[in-house]
Amino acid sequence: MSSLDKFDFEVKSPRDGRTYLQRKYSCISQAETIFAAAQQAQLGWRQYSLAQRKAICARAIAHFAADKAAIAEELSYMIGRPRQYGGLEVDGFVERGNYMLDIAATALANVELPKIAGFRRYIQRQPLGCVFILAPWNYPYLTTVNSLIAALMAGNSVVLKHSSQTPLCGERLVASFNAAGLPEQVFQYIHLQHHISQYVISHCPIQHIAFTGSVTGGIEVEEAAAGRFLSIGLELGGKDPAYIRADADVVTAAAAVIDGALFNSGQSCCGIERIYVHQDCYDDFITQVRSCLGDYRLGDPLDSQTSLGPMVNARAADRARAQVAEALALGAQLLPIIFSHPLDHAGSAYLTPQILVNVDHSMLLMREESFAPIVGIQKVSSDAQAVALMNDSEFGLTACIFSQDIAAATALGELVDTGTVFINRCDYLDPGLAWTGVKRSGKGCSLSKFGYDALTRPKSIHIKELER
């Protein structure tokens, strides 16, 4: 009997291609039981005071963070991220989670309207019910926390489905909340095949869906939910641009955008995927990029010296290789890379970073999401040309502008059609700011006080006071 006779799926580690773990999928009847239990558990959870919910969530966050070293190693095996960086995701979970706890009382407070003689009027924020979170593999904990804490603090129940590449993540999170005293079945994980996920969205008692993934996946979520009038938040990735103005500090800018392009092997929704540089500083910027690349080392993610691990699988790496090959055929040129890995070849998850110049928007590299450690650098002659190129995309998640003139950079940022604009930094989610995208980067919002709006509904209370 093979191992998969006992299990439905296995996680192949991109580190070495070996099976790391195996799990069972839930069938339709099991899924229906889980969501029915979540619906029932929510009725009791919403009766807990905000202070009680906060205490439980705070304990859960602390319990989760205590296992940082083990979590970092698990991420290395499941997605190939260098172990030295795995703990950063735990830190980010704690930062975002605690911020959402801290603002909960204000974000969920009643909105009192001006007094009218003989009347009291106010608006409550009420929980939606059961929230279904579908999280991806690339940042499995950070994409989850964006909605999880606000959902629970608002009085919702949550069912979490992670990618089949990262099934340990949902299991760890639920264990932490259970250890913190969360009532049973308020927060559950589930492992689902694609078609069962569609059935769940179409039939199970769900009031909100928080999906992070591909554009194709977002379309399928909306199609499955058609006619149910569900609240849906979609974070679907991007083709995020950076612009280096003529007056930018090219040393700082080069280090920031190359890190933004290469960290996590480029597998970040808000990673830098295209760079525009003013012609007046272009040569200096390219020199600094060459210098930055010497700080990276591709290799075994468990090696403490490794700064770049493999991509999630060979298919993803080969898609990136195809984009690079197409760009080179159209006239792009590769900057020489001084490091590589013996396993970097077609059919391997290991991919040496590819920095291309002499690129333009006729190339897929500058139009389609790469989600890989590859990036194109294009020379521009003006701010206006840079803004036009930044907006020449079907995506709009984040963008960044580097300049020593903050006012000028901010004014340019106002013209960029995107959910977030960074000035002199990139690839960072401040939990106090709304995380949102435009165009095919999705819809809805998480984090900040607006993240609570997405996970609650307003209920108006209109009272005519009795005469005495």
Number of strands: 20
CATH class of the largest domain: Alpha Beta
Main pleated sheet:
7 strands, mixed
List the total number of helices.
15
Q: What is the annotated CATH architecture of the largest domain?
A: 3-Layer(aba) Sandwich
Task: Write down the Rg.
Answer: 23 Å
Range of helix content = 25-40%
Task: Work out the count of structural domains.
Answer: 2
Structural class: alpha/beta
Basic shape = globular
* Strand order in space, largest sheet: 12-13-14-11-10-16-17
Q: Beta fraction of the residues?
A: 15-25%
Low-confidence stretches: none
The CATH H-level homologous superfamily of the largest domain = Aldehyde Dehydrogenase, Chain A, domain 1
Which terms would index this structure?
15 helices, 7-stranded mixed β-sheet, 20% strand, alpha/beta, 468 residues, Aldehyde Dehydrogenase, Chain A, domain 1, globular, 2 domains
